[in-house]
Specification:
With 204 residues, the chain is mainly alpha-helical. The chain has eight helices and five strands; from the N terminus they run βββααββαααααα. The chain has helices at residues 37-47, 49-52, 97-116, 124-146, 151-160, 163-171, 175-182, 189-203, and strands at 3-5, 15-20, 26-31, 75-76, 79-80. The structure holds flavin-adenine dinucleotide.
């Protein structure tokens, strides 16, 4: 089953993932901020000997993931930025495949239309992509709020939130609902619940 592991000593401001690809192969990785990634991955593998017993490394890859939110301008004369180049990654998960594919599809359609009409400008692009821009913004808001939590808080948060809450929070779906839930919790009311609701109000 796919699994993610968090904690300052596991992956500072990030997470370790284990995604099985088949009975015999898995994608095992780490995303961190402000620290070198490889030592954390090596340590995780070392500490989970039972999970990786007899396993061999078949491929190693590394690359940066832009999780600072979408850039302020995603189009100009004769150009549309899509995917990583536009910062179109969901910040809390670091997932950018789906959001990049959507942007590429929209940009392709608009480019075709613009060529047919003899134009080089794409004012519709930010509007068409707006629901995803909003998700990226909300996920960034959630990331900023939880990135400085201590491990004890993260464990407590995992107990308070259910699967749907975590998916909503990480992906920037229904932050208002999660914020309302957290604002009733004594430990998280001020730090997370109210702060989340306030951030949404400010944006609205
Ligand atoms: C280690 C890691 C794990 C990730 N895991 C996930 C995940 O599980 N789920 C998820 O949703 N996202 C994940 N992401 C993020 C996701 O991969 C990216 O956000 C997404 O691929 C961005 O798509 P893109 O088209 O903008 O860029 P890319 O997928 O990087 O595509 C850019 C392409 O342009 C090519 N290129 C570059 N320069 C030139 C040039 N000068 N001329 C021609 N071609 C060029 C590159 O070779 C590449 O093929 C992960 C990222 C990393 C680094």
């Amino acid at each position: 089953m796919p699994a993610a592991y968090v904690g300052r000593n596991v992956a500072p401001k990030g997470y370790v993932w284990v995604f099985p690809k088949s009975e015999e192969e898995a994608n095992v990785g780490v995303g961190v901020r402000g620290a070198p990634a490889k030592p954390y991955l090596d340590r995780f593998i070392e500490r989970h000997g039972e999970m990786f017993r007899g396993a061999q490394v078949v491929e190693v890859k590394a690359a940066p993931v832009p999780i600072g939110g979408q850039v302020s301008r995603i189009h100009g004369e004769g150009v549309m930025l899509c995917g990583d180049a536009a910062g179109q990654v969901i910040p809390l998960t670091g997932g950018g495949i789906h959001s990049s594919i959507v942007a590429g599809k929209i940009a392709g359609e608009l480019a075709g239309k613009a060529i047919a009409e003899g134009r080089r400008s794409f004012p519709e692009y930010p509007k068409r992509y707006a629901p995803w821009s909003e998700r990226i913004y909300r996920s960034l808001t959630a990331l900023r709020l939880i990135e400085n939590l201590e491990d004890g808080d993260l464990n407590m948060l995992a107990e308070v939130l259910d699967g749907r809450d975590i998916v909503d929070l990480a992906n920037g779906f229904d932050l208002a609902r999660v914020g309302a839930k957290l604002s009733k919790h004594p430990a998280f009311a001020e730090r997370l619940g109210k702060a989340l609701l306030k951030a949404l109000e400010v944006k609205a």
